[in-house]
Amino acid sequence: MKTFFVTAGLLILPVVASAQGLEGAVNAVTSLINVAIPMVLALAVLYFFWGLAQYVLSSGDEGKKAEGRNIMIYGIIALFVMVSVWGLIRLLQDTFNLNNTTPTVPQLII
Question: What is the pTM of this model?
Answer without folding.
Answer: 0.65
